[in-house]
Amino acid sequence: MVHRYDIVDADTFTIIFQNGAKWISITNTPIVYSHEWAQLLEYQLAGMASQNLDAIVLGKFNIYPEAKNTGFERTMNEQIALIRNTQFDVNIDFQNIPPPNLTSVAAVYDKIPIISVSMFALQDEYRAQSVRQEMRTLNRDNLVFVNGRKYMNALGECGSDDKLVVGTCHEPGDVVPNSNRNPADMHRCTGPNGGHPDLIGWDIVETLQEVLLQ
Predict the structure, then answer these.
(1) Which of 22, 90, 163, 211 is the most exposed place for a label (fewest CB within 10 A)?
(2) pLDDT digit string (tens) for 184-211?
(3) DSSP of 40-79, one letter per residue?
(4) Is 153 helix (H, G, I), strand (E, B) or coil?
(5) pTM of this prediction?
(6) Can you tell me the distance from the alpha carbon of 140 to that of 51, in angstroms, rounded to the nearest whole number?
């Protein structure tokens, strides 16, 4: 059961459970586009040393070429401007500094289990293959991969880019109004009985339990 929420914004919040467990969620942050990303993460964790974390669930970091002229680029530019208005003199450059890969993250958090979760989008399959190759090369028991597309064949793609309204699920080949995107690369839908995101969420919960009991 949830005890309370500590919310900074939609992309940064903490859930504290009645048993004392804590879930810290940080998404869409520009700090990964800095060579000092690890130190900046310590600051964003608000005093909680990252080495005290029990596990890390790691998603995909967007890169500039695929995010150019998108809402994500605008969000990054806005957040970088806010950070530069603080007392921190750090070099964050979304256009020219690539985010860390799994190998870099694993080197910093070498004692912490890391669960790497791929995207629902079809376009992420090649990157997901490279992540699995990194894991084979690193050969660490505390690195686990969760396939974000695991149930696509059973449920269908069913993608939508609508965010503020209940949208229509589209399958590849559908004509999507005001969009040239492949529905297989869109966000995944959750209906009244759940959907693909729910299944992957439970896969992550089960994987967390497995790695924490090792």
Answers:
(1) 163
(2) 988 887 777 778 899 999 999 999 999 9
(3) HHHHHTTT--GGG-S-EEE-PPP-HHHHTTSHHHHHHHHH
(4) helix
(5) 0.89
(6) 17
